[in-house]
Every structure is written in structure tokens, then in C-alpha cells.
Amino acid sequence: xxxQPRTGVDENILDAAAALFARHGFEQTSLKSLADAVxxxxxxxxxxxxxxxxLFEAAWEQSRVLTMHVLDQVSPLPAGPERDRRALELLxxxxxxxxxxxxxxxxxxxxxGEDPQQAQDELLLNEMFVIDPENELPRAIRIVGALSAxxxxxxxxxQEGDKTTWRPLILATCYDALGHQEA
Length: 183
Fold this sequence. Notes:
Pfam families: TetR_N
Number of domains: 1
GO molecular function, one term: transcription cis-regulatory region binding
Protein name: Transcriptional regulator, TetR family
Oligomer: single chain
Keywords: DNA-binding, Transcription, Transcription regulation
Domain HTH tetR-type: 7-67
Strand content: under 5%
Distance between the termini: 45 Å
Number of strands: 0
């Protein structure tokens, strides 16, 4: 069972590690690259998390916490454009604040089957956007497109250091990708 992260340092470690795991997968991500990404030695990183496995589990758990937060917020809303917009707003805000964790969550779309628990995360995304992927292929493709655009654009916004200007543009792009018309 992964432990809850301490505020600050552990959150930054988890986000950086999640980004590397999302980009390279568990097997191809070394403990050294994880330590380098957060400016620690391997021993320093292991002081915070006892192993690469523990770090991976903690990152997945935090990604799931973000997912559950969004799902809890949108579940009371009926399926449709309002629910989609709210889900996109919440996911975008999380992606702007913790891009690595959201990238790890979205890895369920780009590397299916890598982690047995990914299927659960994929189901949560389907529930968030109220979709049956086997019977609504066009909508499923639009959702993947919207979330992919979100992932790329939030990473760029973080690189540019201008989240405030980028946020409404990211939301408009994602909303358009879902095929909704602006009101």
C-alpha cells in the first residue's frame, strides 16, 4: 500500500516521476533518471521512497486520487456538454498544476495493458465522460483527441510559464474536439 505523500517535496517527486513513467514506462525508467529529474542522488530519492516500485505505486495512486476528485465533481451532472465541460475544466486545472500525474493517467490510452490497474483508470475516464467505448466509437475517438490535446497543450503551457493565458484556449480546443458548440 503506497504511503500518502508529504506536502511539497514528495508531491514534486511524484509529479516528476509520473512524467517519466508516462513517457518511458516503468521498465525503461531508471532510478538514476528519476533521481536526476528531481535533483537528488539515488540515496536521497530512496530516502523519500524505498524503491522504484514504491515510487511508481505512489505516483499511480496520486493519479487515481486526481481522477476520483474529478469524477466526484462531475458525477452529479447529467451526461452532456455541461458535464463534459466541467470534466475538461477540472482535468485541465490538474494538468496545469501536476502535468506528470495527469500524463500518467492518460498513459492508459497510449500504452494499454502495461499495468493491470490501468483498466480501472480507463473505466473511470469512460465514466467521467459517460461513454461506452464499444458502442460509441466516434465519441470515444473525440474524447481521446480532446484528452491528447489537453496533455500536449498543458505541457506547452507549463513550458511557456503562462498557464493563465493558455487555460481558456486549452479548454476551447478540448471542448471543440468533443464536437460541442460554444454557447
